[in-house]
Design a protein that fits this description.
Blueprint lengths: L1 E7 L3 E7 L14 E8 H15 L5 H13 L28
Antiparallel strand pairs: 1-2, 1-3
Length: about 100
């Protein structure tokens, strides 16, 4: 499982976590993307777990993948820059996944 993190001219970010390869929608305008950051299942799980343990935020794996992608991107981001991301999924539906929580 991999997550691909995309940024839209550094203003919009999204991630998709899939059991198979990243599926790119036919309508995706690739010309507006700055790039894709691959995040492993282990990294997505690790950031999902960290959010729960350290911040008390029960989120889904895709939100953990976004945090993992941001962590990978941090060395390239200017000091003092603001980063905005969304936690658009609850972890409630993932409670039965072995090894996640």
């Amino acid at each position: 499982m991999h997550s691909n993190f995309t940024s839209h001219k550094k203003t919009c970010m999204q991630t998709k976590v899939r059991a198979s390869h990243f599926l790119i929608p036919a309508i995706l305008n690739k010309e507006i993307l700055d790039g894709i950051i691959q995040v492993s299942k282990d990294d997505a799980y690790a950031y999902t777990q960290r959010a729960a343990k350290e911040e008390g935020i029960l989120m889904g794996v895709s939100s953990g993948a976004v945090l993992a992608a941001v962590a990978k991107k941090l060395p390239e981001i200017s000091k003092g820059a603001k980063i905005l991301t969304f936690n658009y999924d609850t972890g409630e539906r993932y409670l039965s996944i072995e090894g996640l929580f």
